[in-house]
Design a protein that fits this description.
The chain is mainly beta and about 350 residues long. Helix content is about 10%, strand content about 35%. The protein has four helices and 19 strands. Strands 1, 2, 5, 6, 11, 12, 13, 14, 17, 18 and 19 form an eleven-stranded mixed beta sheet that branches. A four-stranded antiparallel beta sheet has the order 4-3-7-8, with no helix packed on it.
Length: about 350
């Protein structure tokens, strides 16, 4: 309870004061790069970042070099701001390095190793109810107990298909946050560290496309099993915190508290009110679990902290939560390995 009251007190401070301060805008432009190894591809987004207060240059000519275990790969432009290199196969421990050059700027280089695949031994779910709280408990058992330096990410994607009276369908989707508290009696266990999220669109971390990835560490596991709830008590707590953010900021831009249903205006096809009352509904839940390289995890967590650190945002502590494994510039080179679990048909459970 003390932890929750502390959070509430910080929220009151956040919405009641502004502290102006000057920024030191000195410095030279640097190359900023995000490079993510996923499946058989590495996706690279390089930019030239000027000091604070000046614009970046997404269309600056770039020279990209990608190596897999020391062997150069062909790099092709994908659009005006991104590049891609393909390879097959890639195995656990394979090293990928990315180097970016642009004009007279200092070149940047980052290295990552492909993480092990996620091996799920058992996946199950069941309906549970305590007092008036109805939820779904999901259990994912891995082939081993995660170690201290293993990092995961989970994404829960809900799809609803409404059957309208004219026998046409209206479909929409949203993203859900895994919960860990089933009743109000467990509120003392509420910890914001359990809900570290960052937007990830399968190519870029921290963008505005609302596709939250929740970071998971050994802390959330019970031995080799990861259990969480859908529609649990802490969902309402998260929604309350989100609604109290100053200026309506939810953290959706780069990470932060993102939970429950979301507006289409938040960038992601959220729930909408159908024009007529539907005569049928089908609800499907899709869950993906990813193993993250340390570089991916620490950069994602830094994005979350930079967007949802109460004390730093109020100027009460230094904003020192940046993280990078890129030499000569800014950004990160990381990797992610993802497994998609069997879809869950929640049609009966979510019927009104």
């Amino acid at each position: 309870m003390k932890k929750f009251l502390h959070i509430a007190a910080l929220l009151l401070l956040a919405v009641s004061c502004e502290i102006p301060f000057d920024l030191d805008q000195a410095g030279e432009p640097k190359i900023y790069v995000q490079a993510i190894v996923k499946g058989a591809h590495v996706h690279i987004v390089p930019l030239v970042a000027d000091p604070v207060g000046k614009a970046s240059h997404p269309n600056t000519p770039m020279e990209i070099q990608v190596e897999l275990n020391g062997e150069s790969l062909s790099v092709l432009p994908q659009d005006s701001v991104s590049y891609s290199a393909s390879f097959w196969p890639i195995e656990e421990g394979d090293e990928v390095s990315v180097t970016v050059r642009s004009g007279s700027l200092a070149p940047v280089t980052g290295v990552t190793r492909f993480p092990p695949s996620v091996v799920v031994e058992d996946f199950s779910w069941e309906r549970v109810q305590v007092d008036t709280i109805k939820a779904v408990e999901v259990s994912v058992r891995l082939d081993h107990e995660p170690g201290e330096e293993e990092y995961y990410g989970i994404r829960i994607h809900r799809q609803d298909h409404l059957l309208l009276p004219d026998h046409t369908y209206l479909s929409y989707y949203n993203y859900l946050t895994p919960g860990y508290i089933l009743t109000a009696g467990d509120i003392a266990k509420f910890d914001l560290e359990d809900f570290v999220q960052v937007n990830y669109d399968d190519h870029y971390l921290g963008g505005r496309d609302f596709q939250p990835l929740t970071l998971v560490t050994r802390k959330q596991f019970d031995g080799d099993t990861y259990r969480f709830y859908i529609n649990s008590f802490d969902t309402s707590i998260l929604n309350g915190i989100r609604g109290s953010m100053p200026g309506g900021q939810t953290g959706a831009a780069g990470g932060g508290i993102i939970s429950g249903e979301v507006n289409p205006s938040a960038g992601g096809g959220g729930q909408v009110n159908p024009p007529v009352i539907p005569i049928g509904r089908r609800t499907i839940i899709h869950i993906s679990l990813s193993r993250l390289s340390p570089e991916f995890y620490f950069f994602a967590k830094a994005l979350y902290q930079s967007n949802f650190d109460f004390l730093a945002n109020m100027g009460l502590v230094p904003a020192n939560f940046t993280w990078s494994n890129v030499e000569g510039g800014m950004g990160f080179v990381g990797a992610i390995s993802t497994v998609t679990l069997d879809p869950i048909d929640f049609t009966e459970y979510f019927q009104k």
